[in-house]
Request: fold
Amino acid sequence: MIGQLARLAADSGPSIHVAPAHDFTLGGLSITNSILYGWIVCVCLIAGLIYLARRASIHPKGGVVQYFEAGVDFVTNLVEGAFNDQAVGRKYVPFFVTLFFFVLLNNWAGLIPIVGEGVQIHGHPFLRPMTGDLNATLAIGLVTMLIVYVASIREVGGFRSYIKHFFIGSPLNPLYLTIGLIEMLTDLTRVLSLSLRLFLNITIGEIVIAVFAYLGHIAAPLTALPFTLLELGVGALQAYIFVILSVNYLAISVNSAADHGDLTDDDTPETIKATPRKAEA
Reply:
C-alpha cells in the first residue's frame, strides 16, 4: 500500500485523471477503466447480495449479515415512509434497496489502494470508480428517472393523470398553466442533478486524496488516511441522497396525483386551500 500511494508523490505534482481512459477493446467497443471496474463491482455485488440474502433470517445474526439487514431495513423504512399508502411504496423496495447498495459499493470500491493512481497502464489508471465517471452517473440517473417516470404513470392511472399532478389547478388558468410548465421543466432537470451531484462528490474526493498523498511523499498513506476515512462517510451519504431523492420524486408524483385527482376547472385557490391534504414526504 505504501508503494502504491507513494507513486502519487512524484516531483512533477499529483497525478490526477478525471476523464475515463481506454483499457482495451472488446467486440469493437472501447472498454474504459471505469466501465471495467463497474463490471467487477457489479459481479461482486450480485454474488454478495445472493450470499447475504441466503444467510438472512428472522433471528438476528452477527457479522456482515447484520449490517446488510440494517441497510435493507433502513431503505425499506425510507421508501415506505415516503408514500401516503405504504403498500404502494413496498412494491418498489427491492429496486431502491438494490440502487442503494449499488451506489454505495461503487463509491467505497473507489477507495481501495489499487484503484485510481495505484496501478497504471499506458500512463493512466487501470481501474477507476464507476461513480467517478460522468458518463456512468448520467446512465445511472437516466435509468433511475425512467423507472420513476414509468412507475409514476402506472401508479397514478395514466399519462394524463401524471401530467395533471404538475398543476395545482386547471391548466386553463394562465397562472396555473405557467406554474405547471415550470414544474415540468424542473422535473426534466432531475437526471442532471442526480448525476452531477454524485459525480462531483466522488471525483472531488479522489482529487483531495491524491493531493494529500502527494504532499505526504513517503508518508502518503498517513497524510491521505484521514481523507480516505472521510470519503467513506461521503460515499455512504451520497448513496443515501441519491436514493432519498429518487424515492421522493416517485412519492411526490403518486401522493400529489392522489391529493389533486379531484380538481376541476372550477377550482380556485380558496377551494384548494380549504381542501385538507395529506402531508407529502
